[in-house]
């Protein structure tokens, strides 16, 4: 299954022009099965800076237009109506959608973080769909945009909140994709919390698998090579695809000037981990051990772990 992540800046490119057809064309070209979008406008009179639109076309229902132009089903969740319409996140899917859910973060309530240095506090929202894949089965896909707190506290609180919410939706061990604009560099604590909740950063794991890198080096490189903003001169890694029960076999940062963010494209398969036979001190020579990371630990894994220091 291919997942495409993109903060589309309400279909406004770095050239300042509003062009939903251009946005839709890039999505269609990606050949994605599921697309997670942020900063999507529906019938808004003003932009995210609360400035009146001079171009009447920007008052479009962008979620509907993108769905129609790509031939995909969609689900939209609004975070605010302060701009005269709705503004929030969207998911497009070629796969059948079995269920749709949304959650407004309490962690981003206006009175929650007075230390939001980058912008005025704005309610954030997560939208989630349960899609059906012929081979992988049901998969939860979640689109988020986290707050812009320079301290990173709001983003960390929102990750904790979204994981608590998802625990009420997803069955134990059910595959999960959490993608979005985290507004957080790789060293922010929200990413450590994702790790603690059993989510794998698709970029880091795919980069590490391809190049045999240790995780620390992969994180360091990702801060530069995985940068997604600003799209005309990317220097910040703000967009992420996190996985549970799935692994990325291909991951690309898509060069585009159709938004202020670059897009991400990840080809996913069921997660299995193959460990080299040479590290098994108490298994037969030439043996390897494949296991589902969501399954209970087997006796062979316990035997292996006990033999590491012998």
Kindly describe this structure:
One of its GO terms (molecular function) is catalytic activity. Residues 6-261 form the Endonuclease/exonuclease/phosphatase domain. One of its GO terms (cellular component) is membrane. By secondary structure, this protein is α+β, with helices and mostly antiparallel strands. The chain has 2 domains: 2-271, Endonuclease/exonuclease/phosphatase (Deoxyribonuclease I, Chain A); 272-310, no CATH class. 23% of the residues lie in helices and 30% in strands. The strands form 3 sheets. Strands 3-4-2-1-12-11 form a 6-stranded mixed sheet. A 6-stranded mixed sheet has the order 5-6-7-8-10-9. Strands 13-14 form a two-stranded antiparallel ribbon. A hairpin with a 5-residue loop joins strand 3 (73-80) and strand 4 (86-93). Helix 5 crosses helix 6. The model is unreliable at 114-118 and 274-310 (pLDDT under 50).
Name the features:
310 residues, alpha+beta, Deoxyribonuclease I, Chain A, six-stranded mixed sheet, 30% strand
Show the helix and strand layout.
Blueprint: E1 2-7, H1 20-29, E2 34-42, H2 62-70, E3 73-80, E4 86-93, E5 97-104, E6 125-133, E7 137-145, H3 153-167, E8 176-181, H4 189-196, E9 200-201, H5 202-211, H6 215-225, E10 239-244, E11 246-254, E12 263-270, E13 273-275, E14 289-291, H7 299-306
Parallel strand pairs: 1-2, 7-8
Antiparallel strand pairs: 1-12, 2-4, 3-4, 5-6, 6-7, 8-10, 9-10, 11-12, 13-14
Helix pairs in contact: 1-2, 3-4, 5-6
């Amino acid at each position: 299954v291919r997942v495409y992540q993109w903060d589309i800046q309400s279909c406004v490119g770095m050239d300042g022009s509003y062009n939903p057809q251009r946005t839709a064309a890039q999505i269609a070209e990606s050949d994605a099965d599921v697309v997670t979008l942020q900063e999507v406008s529906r019938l808004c009179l003003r932009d995210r800076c609360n400035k009146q639109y001079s171009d009447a076309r920007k008052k479009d229902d962008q979620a509907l237009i993108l769905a129609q132009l790509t031939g995909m089903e969609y689900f939209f969740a609004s975070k605010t109506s302060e701009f005269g319409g709705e503004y929030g996140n969207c998911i497009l899917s070629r796969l059948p959608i079995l269920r749709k859910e949304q959650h407004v973060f309490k962690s981003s309530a206006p009175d929650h973080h007075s230390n939001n240095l980058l912008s005025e506090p704005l309610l954030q929202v997560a939208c989630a769909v349960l899609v059906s894949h012929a081979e992988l089965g049901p998969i939860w896909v979640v689109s988020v945009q986290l707050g812009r707190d320079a301290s990173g506290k709001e983003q960390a609180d929102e990750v904790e909140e979204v994981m608590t919410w998802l625990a009420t939706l997803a069955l134990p061990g059910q595959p999960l994709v959490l993608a979005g604009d985290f507004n957080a560099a790789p060293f922010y604590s929200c990413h450590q919390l994702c790790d603690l909740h059993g989510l794998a950063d698709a970029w880091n794991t795919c980069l590490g698998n391809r190049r045999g890198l240790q995780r620390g080096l992969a994180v360091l490189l990702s801060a530069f090579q995985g940068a997604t903003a600003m799209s005309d001169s990317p220097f910040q890694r703000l967009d992420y695809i996190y996985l549970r029960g799935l692994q990325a076999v291909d991951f690309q940062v898509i060069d585009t000037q159709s938004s202020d963010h670059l897009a991400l494209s990840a080809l996913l398969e069921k997660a299995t981990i193959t460990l080299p036979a040479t590290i098994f001190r108490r298994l037969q020579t030439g043996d390897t051990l494949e296991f589902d990371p969501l399954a209970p630990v087997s006796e062979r894994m316990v035997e292996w772990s006990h033999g590491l220091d012998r």
